[in-house]
Amino acid sequence: MESEQGEPGTVRPGGRTARVRAAVLRAAGDALAEHGFAGLDLADVARRAEVGRTTVYRRWGTVTGLVADLLVDMAEQSLPRTETGTLLGDLKANARLVRRTLADPRQGALFKAVIAAAVCEPRTAEALHRFYETRVEEWAPCVRQAVERGELPAGTDAHEVIRAVSAPLYYRLLTSGLPLDEAAADRAAEAAAAAARAGAYVREG
After folding, report:
1. Residue limits of the HTH tetR-type domain (predicted)?
2. Distance in angstroms (rounded) separating the CA atoms of residues 159 and 146
């Protein structure tokens, strides 16, 4: 998703360029999950991906540039939203997707590493914010549709409802050490749906 001269995310590569990018990003994800952001090294990523160091340094330049592009790719590869015809059904589908991702040993470790890096790396933080905005925007229509069906009050902030679904799951991942099971996902969806129906996410003014 980047040109060799430009910032990551500017040009969609094809052919060999796409294969190299896929291999490097897969290797970067593996390294992040294993060693965290502090242990991420461009030369190690090049070795894992079986590509030349020069290619990696020229195209991504820095560890933060590589992580930013990894997040772009993860947003693009995420599954599209599910439409069940009801607000609760849609929110449960969203919550279960988030749960599966965070409970996965590789993906969960990867997200922990990126979130930790975002605390002190502005470029990583910006990329992480873009990743979540992309995912929230993907699922926001299910809330707008619920408003149109009369399930939710007019003026409900669709983005805030979607954020409310995943927030308890991230909290559980990062703070509690408790298992991320499907029951936790369903509770998060049910709580967000109940609050939305009660008008908690209606925008003021």
Report:
1. 18-78
2. 13
